[in-house]
Amino acid sequence: HIRLVRQFPWAYLDASSTNVLSMRKTSSTTSSRGSFYWLAILAVFFALFGAVIKLLDNRLRHFYIFDQAQLHDISRAAIARHGNATDLIFDEIVSKLGQDPKIGPTLNKNSFRDHNEWVFNNAGGAMGSMYIIHASITEYLIFFGTPIGTEGHTGRHTADDYFHILQGEQLAFRAGDLTPERYPAGAMHHLKRGQVKQYVMPESGCWALELAQGWIPPMLPFGMADSVFSTLDLPTFLRTCVITGREMIANLLRGMYNTGLTMVQGNFKALSIYSVFALLTDSMTVKRDVDSDSG
Questions:
Q1: What confidence tens digit (pLDDT) does each residue in 69-88 have?
Q2: How are beta strands 188-191 and 159-173 bridged, if at all?
Q3: Which of 14, 122, 201, 276 has its CA 20 to 30 A from that of 243?
């Protein structure tokens, strides 16, 4: 064998080269098949994920508990009754909402008069203070504003935003507009989902009741990013996360509990109807048997 290798080394080199090329081709084919396999899995996953999101998006309104028209009426009534007494306006709005048996249990249990429940919010270049009345996966309701003015970018959001002006005035405009939109106390500024504007709260101050309805989690980075990367106000960032998480998780668990309770009640009702029907059927059968025996 050694003698053959010495006499014909080129034959063995060709054979080894062929084996190496063959192994490389096999490895390349296996790698391509593996890549195609994972790409197919990812494609199926994203297709299913997109279909679920689309289905849920079409049914989002079924998860809402607030009626923005009702909130507008409550806000206007409070303004008419208390004028520029912002704290009394806040008090009446929260009190009215708390009287609703559907809404009341989902509200923040801590009063807006507790300063620990208020946090600064820096977003889109604007700065204000907010109190979270309600927060869930599909809605949030807050008091937001400033007594000294601010201006900035609204953000482009995955939810409709309804800004009910309670005190002062808000100005806004879209790119291309040559005159501002004006929203005095008692007006409602609707920022549609996907729309974007610049807004101003004048130095005389402005306070609002803000309702957002849609996909809330994707909005959170806009509302918190400045605290991390611009102001570096980490205590405010952490406090915002704690309050938001506390309210969101509580309402999520409450919604799951209510859904489960509704299902149990529905099953119990169906079982009760079935039991009554079975009892009536048995009674009719017994009566028929008795009549036949009498005959």
A1: 999 999 999 999 999 999 99
A2: antiparallel
A3: 201
